[in-house]
Design a protein that fits this description.
single chain, Alpha-Beta Plaits, alpha+beta, 4-stranded antiparallel β-sheet, Glutaredoxin, FAD/NAD(P)-binding domain
């Protein structure tokens, strides 16, 4: 370590590069635990284009856990939780185990703005127009050099700076996977053609181009998704003329497209960072994984990274984290991203116009008439099927717990502070000396098939049982040594 730094005061506990949904959510999670947070965003202003994104069931549950869902709902539109997998249209399956079993279509700038405001309200500092240019680690912290030459110090740095992450590149973390082989234009444009004509043409084109779609929104706008023959430089923003030309090439008409709200192009590049952590620097969101937007999983995957990482990094900084707790961020989230990459690969294959993939698509379409198959795929896309591997334990352990109606109100309302929670139906267990980081709720009428359970701050079940000694062991495993 540079001797001149020995007495240097660390102004921040965590610096986050990137103030998108993942970075803003992570900042808020850290502030729940009084962690000093600085968020650096290279763009001087929030994005101006209005892109509609979908918050899936698990993300809606997490928002409810932090009291954010009621802020989001007025800005979005609830849609049925169906038709996500390879755009195969089936009804909502029976038995989705959630109080929030719907999709919330919402403008992405609204999500970012609300999450950023939430983080700032909790005490996070956000600086716009500041890009990370250099990173250097030592035993005591991380030095972050900005593009203007300013240097900042923190205990940890988290790269939430997107698919072309500067932090990931500076760390030298490999980003293996497949480059783009195909390209698609996607945007929201007004179409002048009659809706009946649009629907009929889309149905005809989709016989051979499954990835083609025109989805109506409000005020005459449609989400336009149209495949392109050649792969171009993604840094080149598409123009209205590109959409008009490609619509004519694929559908024989441009439908009178005009007045775009936003336009983008994406490929089918699929990559996963080799590591999510290098000592004091971590990666989350698109900086750690990229994949095509098939199924609308990308933003949701990043938000869920933030919820998994936030309380663990805070525990490390607050000094009570068990030795390997921060390592579980990678061991839990890396396989989740790998599974998402696989299901997007599968969905893209089913969108191919080739006879083989189309035969498989027809077979899967028939199989999805079975409720169990339909539900399995919806639960996979919406992340409510997820079970973290906590070692040998009952099947319920490692899974998320749905929102419950308790004597004291809704379960998720008890998780707003980002702490652990003991839900005790026996009324005889206690969190004891862990009460500074774990809350306790005794409710003998709770609608559970187990006597007691311990929830982590991210809503995943860490333990079930009714023995105090066993509970104490699991409190130690997840929440460190008890307070003296």
């Amino acid at each position: 370590m540079d001797p001149s730094r020995r007495n240097e005061t660390l102004l921040y506990d965590v610096i986050i590069a990137g103030c998108g949904p993942t970075g803003a959510m992570l900042a808020a999670e850290l502030r729940l635990h009084d962690v000093r947070v600085l968020v650096l965003e290279k763009d001087t202003e929030p994005v101006s284009f209005v892109r509609i994104v979908g918050l899936h069931i698990r993300s809606l549950e997490l928002m409810a856990m932090r009291g954010l869902l009621e802020r989001l709902l007025p800005h979005g539109r609830q849609r049925p939780a169906a038709g996500f997998f390879a755009a195969i249209h089936k009804p909502v399956p029976d038995g989705l185990d959630s109080a929030h079993a719907y999709l919330l279509g919402i403008p992405q700038p609204v999500v970012v703005r609300l999450l950023e405001e939430h983080a700032i309200d909790l005490g996070a500092e956000v600086r716009r127009g500041h890009a990370v240019a250099g990173v250097e680690q030592d035993d005591d912290g991380v030095t972050v050099e900005l593009a203007d030459g300013e240097k900042l110090r923190a205990r940890h740095l988290v790269g939430c700076d997107g698919s072309r992450s500067t932090v990931r590149k500076l760390l030298g973390v490999g980003f293996p996977g497949e480059p783009s082989r195909t390209e698609t234009l996607m945007g929201e444009l007004k179409l002048e053609a009659p809706q009946e004509e649009i629907a009929a043409t889309v149905a005809e084109v989709q016989r051979t181009h499954k990835s083609f779609s025109l989805t109506p929104f409000d005020q005459g706008f449609y989400r336009v998704v149209v495949p392109v023959v050649a792969v171009s430089d993604r840094s080149d923003e598409p123009a209205l003329e590109d959409f008009q030309q490609q619509l004519r090439a694929v559908a024989g008409t441009d439908f009178g497209a005009h007045s775009p709200r936003w336009m983008s192009r994406f490929g089918d590049a699929t990559r996963l960072a080799e590591h999510y952590r290098v000592d004091r620097v971590l990666l989350a969101g698109d900086a750690a994984h990229i994949h095509p937007p098939t199924g609308g999983q990308g933003l949701n995957l990043g938000l869920q990274d933030a919820f998994n990482l936030g309380w663990k990094l805070a525990a490390q900084i607050r000094g009570w984290a068990p030795e390997t707790l921060l390592d579980t961020y990678e061991t839990e989230r890396h396989p989740v991203a790998a599974a998402v990459l696989d299901n997007t690969r599968a969905q893209l294959e089913l969108s191919s116009p080739e006879p083989g993939p189309q035969a498989v698509r027809r077979l899967l379409t028939e199989l999805m008439d079975l409720n169990e198959v339909n539900r399995y795929l919806i639960e996979k896309i919406t992340a409510i099927d997820l079970r973290y591997d906590f070692g040998e334990s009952p099947d319920l352990v490692g899974r998320r717990l749905r929102d419950l109606d308790l004597e004291q109100g809704r379960l998720y309302d008890q998780l707003h502070r980002g702490r652990g929670l003991l839900l005790d139906r026996t009324e005889r267990l206690t969190v004891g000396a862990w009460s500074d980081r774990v809350d306790q709720l005794a409710d003998p009428t709770a609608p559970l098939d187990v006597p007691c359970l311990l929830l982590r701050p991210d809503g995943h079940i860490a333990w079930i049982g009714d023995d105090q000694q066993d509970l104490d062991a699991h409190l130690t495993r997840w929440f460190g040594k008890p307070t003296d």
